[in-house]
Each structure stands twice: as structure tokens, then as C-alpha cells.
Specification:
The chain is an alpha/beta fold and about 220 residues long. About 10% of the residues lie in helices and about 30% in strands.
Length: about 220
């Protein structure tokens, strides 16, 4: 059984803890978090051991970044890379309810929670998070650091860009592209390509913000 460190004492970390403890091939040895107020706390039985940089002090442990924001996950990867930590140090966590058909690929550091579905030739990049009940259909391609909230459904041949975010229960029509760092509101029905760095919401989804897009309360 491989030792595993989680990064960020978050709600996502709690979900990952529950998943790997019930069935995963990992022994969670603790959590790393830069918030000094969390040092020494116990999160669902896992101790917060120190800041993120202390990952270098556990050379035999694999890592999972449990930050909901894709750009946040990318920032941590870049920081640890600068300290010399390579991609081979990241685990991939897949709930046992998830069937991975032949021809589907899942990258390092990615997290697939309960009842995620994949049909055929789905490619999921590195450090992707798919919350419970996400549906990927044939030939979907998911860029690194993307986040798909619970209940998202993608038609076939959908391309989701790097660090994009798709909100809860949103649907994306087949053969569309969601640009890098784009954000899709919960319950949206996406019927057209979404450019990078734009926020779309509604049925049918339309642009509601361009450029830098902080999360919008009540929309995302």
C-alpha cells in the first residue's frame, strides 16, 4: 500500500479521504496546508502536518492536490516543481464505482469521485477533478487542471481547456470547445464554443463576463 499525502485541508480532501479509505491502495499519512491556523488539526482522522513545501520531507509518499480551483492546483504544482518534485510523485485517485474502459486515459494527479462515467476514448489530463456523477462520452478531451462539478454531462468530442471550470449539473453539446480558464455556471446548457477566460451561464448559456473571472456567488 502506497503512502499518500493530501495537499489542502479542504472539503475535497475529506471526500478523497473517504474514498481511498474505503477501497483505495493508499495509506493517507497526513495533510499539508500553508494555513498556519490549521497546523496540528485533525481532519477526519488525518493530521495537518505542516506547509506544502514539506512534501520534500516525505520522499516515499505520493501526493494529491485537493484544491477545488484548477489554477490553485497548478500553482502548487509549479511551486513544488521549482523545489525539484517531479510528476512521478503524484497519485491518481479513482473511486471503485468508476469503470475505465479500454482506450480511456487518465493523467497523473487526477481525482475521479463516485459514479463518474466514461464511454469510449476519453482522455483526461493531469490534475483534473471530476466530482460525483460526471458523464464523459466518446472522444472527450479534458485539459490539465480542469474542474467538473457534480452532475456535469459532456456530449461526444467535447474539448475542455486547461484549468476550465464547469459548474454543477451543466451540460455541453457534442463537438464543442470550452476554452482554457473558462467558467460555466451551474445548470447551464452550452450550445456554442466558449472562448478562453469567459464566464457563461444560463439556458442556453451566454457570456456574462469576459477576462479575469472570480467565482460568481449563486451562478457558479
Amino acid at each position: 500500500m502506497s503512502e499518500l499525502l493530501l495537499i489542502a485541508a479542504s472539503g475535497l480532501a475529506r471526500e478523497v479521504l473517504a474514498m481511498v479509505r474505503s477501497s483505495g491502495p493508499f495509506d493517507v499519512i497526513g495533510i499539508l496546508d500553508d494555513d498556519e491556523d490549521k497546523l496540528g488539526r485533525v481532519v477526519d482522522g488525518a493530521h495537518v502536518l505542516g506547509p506544502v513545501r514539506e512534501a520534500m520531507n516525505y520522499p516515499h509518499a505520493l501526493l494529491l492536490i485537493c484544491i477545488g480551483s484548477g489554477s490553485g492546483r497548478e500553482s502548487v504544482v509549479m511551486r513544488l516543481r521549482a523545489l525539484g518534485l517531479g510528476e512521478d510523485r503524484y497519485a491518481t485517485a479513482i473511486d471503485p464505482s468508476v469503470r475505465v474502459p479500454e482506450g480511456c486515459m487518465i493523467g497523473r494527479g487526477s481525482i475521479l469521485l463516485a459514479h463518474v462515467s466514461m464511454t469510449a476514448s476519453v482522455t483526461i489530463g493531469d490534475h483534473v477533478v471530476a466530482m460525483p456523477g460526471v458523464t464523459f462520452t466518446h472522444d472527450d478531451v479534458i485539459g490539465d487542471y480542469a474542474t467538473l462539478a457534480s452532475g456535469v454531462s459532456l456530449g461526444g468530442n467535447v474539448h475542455v481547456g486547461r484549468a476550465a471550470y464547469i459548474g454543477m449539473n451543466a451540460s455541453v453539446r457534442e463537438r464543442l470547445t470550452i476554452g482554457a480558464k473558462a467558467m460555466i455556471g451551474m445548470g447551464a446548457a452550452v450550445l456554442a464554443d466558449v472562448p478562453e477566460d469567459e464566464t457563461w451561464a444560463g439556458v442556453p448559456a451566454r457570456v456574462i463576463r469576459r477576462g479575469n473571472t472570480p467565482e460568481l456567488e449563486g451562478v457558479l
